[in-house]
Amino acid sequence: MDFTPTEEQSAVRELAGEIFGDLSTHERLTAAGTGTDTELWKALCGAGLPAAVEETGLLGLVLALEEQGRTTAQVPFAASCVYGVLALAAHGSEEQRDRLLPALRDGTATATGAFPAHGGVRASADGGPTGELTGVVPVVPWLRDATHVLVPDADRTLWWIRTGAPGTATEPVETTAPWSAGRLTLSGARGERIGGPGPGTYEDVLATARTAFAGLQTGVCAGSLARAVEHTGTREQFGRPLSTNQAVLLRAADAYMETEAIRVTSYEAAWRRDRALPYRTHALTAAWWASEAGRRVVHTGQHLHGGLGADLEHPVHRHFLWGRQIDAYLGCGAELLDELGGLIVDGQEGQHGQDRRDGQGWRGGSNGQDRRDGQGRHDGQDREEGVA
């Protein structure tokens, strides 16, 4: 495995870092309140960052999301890229990609996803490409900004729905982090199916989302730790900086190592996804670290600020709120560990979510995997030379 970014991925990370660093300032975040920074979103789309995800892959997106997390920039970058650009590029038909992707690339359309599935949406369909959906999803992140939402039904088939369509209603919901969330109510709303029926496409998009938000958590934790290091290096107690106290050093060192664990596991999951290797267990591993370690890191960042950490006017509190939001989103630590254990015991890694396109049509035999080892042999066990 080599996680060294390509030239294109490095360029995306540098551009994202420059835009987020220049525009996602403490003053602008304060002015935005709990809403989205629309000017920042326009700048990102104008720079071509959502469009670049198709070329740089999930690893490229993870690198860019790290930069967003460092500044806790309030834009639907992760949601629109995961549930829109990457989901359609991987599972949409040729007609759907040609029709829907251009608007997502330039930002005239924004997507989000009603993930994870809780079985609250029923679809009435005859097996065709469209259906009518009914049900309620209590919380959908970035729904107030989205023009489209990717909705899994009770059977975990995915449906693409326009938020302003007849039979679709949204209500604002406030969450821990300012993610412009909303409640989605569907009453016979018309949707078009993305991917095949059943859970395969859903599992792949969910694994992609978990990997992407783990990358976002990496940046959130790195930003929190950077602020803590700056604060403890300049704040003095008993005539010396706080950073010279052994307890402070140990807390900061633990937070650094846990941030690196989130980073490397998210990189590995993204790298494997981009190479069409089985990656569901790797995505769950990254998500577990993002949940468990991420929560500890943002608590450490706030704790090391002392009383300032509880001040809502201090920027470190945003990292705490984002860290806690990502901790619970798409499954908390115990849930993820239970799911991961089940996959390992059942040997189901790679059974779903690997039917991505390779430019020549669908990959896959009876189980949608059909990858080859180094000798071009189909062995039915999803092995590739040197990789189990």
Overview of this protein structure:
This protein has 388 residues and is of the alpha+beta class. The protein contains 11 helices and 9 strands. It has helices spanning 7-23, 26-32, 38-46, 49-71, 77-91, 94-106, 200-234, 246-274, 280-303, 316-328, 333-346, and strands at residues 111-113, 121-124, 130-140, 148-152, 158-162, 168-172, 182-194, 236-237, 240-241. Strands 1, 2, 3, 4, 5, 6 and 7 form a 7-stranded mixed sheet that branches. It has a two-stranded antiparallel sheet with strand order 8-9. It is globular, with a radius of gyration of 21 Å.
Distance between the termini: 13 Å
Question: Class by helix and strand content?
Answer: alpha+beta
What would you call the shape? globular
Helix share bin? 40-55%
Q: Low-confidence runs (pLDDT<50, min 5 residues)?
A: 351-388
Number of helices: 11
Mean pLDDT: 88
- As a percent range, the share of strand residues is 5-15%
